[in-house]
Amino acid sequence: MKTASKIYLALVFIFLYAPIAVMILISFNSSDSTTQFAGFSLRWYREMLNDKNTLEALKNTLVLSFCAAVLSTLIGTAAAIGIDGMKRRWVKGAVMSVTNIPMMNPDIVTGISLMLLFVFAGSVTGVVSFGFATLLIAHVTFDLPYVMLSVLPKLKQMDKNLPEAATDLGCTPLQSFFKVELPLIAPGIITGFIMAFTLSFDDFVISNFTSGSSYETLTIHIYSMIKKSVKPDVYALSTVIFLVILVLLVFYNFSESSDERAARKKRDADKRRSKELRRLRGETKKSKS
């Protein structure tokens, strides 16, 4: 049974990562063939650095993804705190159901509806301009639910007495939030930021409906190239992006595991301290009796 489970797990990993391995291999191919490996070369990485249009699309995507991730993290964290503080369950349930709609909604429906909204707003104001602003609003719209769902579990895990204790000790509500609540929910905020950045960086459907012709993202640029032919320098760019994301994920998982180990040590120390206090109290009661 163990052998079968290992084989099954190996097949799953092969199915997931074989396409990426093939892409990385082709990015080092000296020829432009995708079926024959002529030899190892960095030719397509040099071509990538000389492709101004691709690099411009990459820069646009990075700027858009970062701005969308920052805005959605700020708004989503504030919204999660507001939802967590709601007293009535039915109101909280209704708000959560509405929050989940952008996640369950097909991307093409979201893209078309946002495009129609921008067109309507432009007809009312007299200015119809698709570009960075419309893309940013669209990306923040579909990033928000993921940030909220990353922060909410951390708020539920947090001891609700800690902010009250901080205010009793002289902190203002704002100081209590930044000194007590924010450090406790920080892992959820970081996870939400990373998810928002990745989703924005990866999006094509919604961006295609809300971008216009003045601001081209990397996914739209690659799609426009597919109509003719995909140059192998795109494989090189995809390899670089994959490796950067892999390094960031390894670093994040390592830091998260370090925080978990530190928290576990602190909990163990608190348990030992409480046991020692109970033992001393018991001895004190015996001596008094």
Describe the structure.
This protein has helices at residues 2-27, 43-50, 52-84, 89-104, 107-125, 132-157, 161-168, 173-202, 205-210, 218-226, 233-288. With 289 residues, it is mostly helical. α1 (2-27) packs across α11, α6 (132-157) crosses α8 and α7 (161-168) packs across α8 (173-202). The longest helix has 56 residues, at 233-288. The mean pLDDT is 81.
What can be said about this structure in brief?
Helices cover 82% and strands 0% of the residues. The protein has helices at residues 2-27, 43-50, 52-84, 89-104, 107-125, 132-157, 161-168, 173-202, 205-210, 218-226, 233-288.
Number of continuous helical runs: 11
Radius of gyration: 26 Å
Q: How much of the sequence is in beta strands? A: under 5%
Proportion of residues in helical segments: over 70%
Topology, number of strands: 0
Question: What is the average per-residue confidence, as pLDDT, rounded to a whole number?
Answer: 81
Shape: globular
Q: Class by helix and strand content? A: mainly alpha
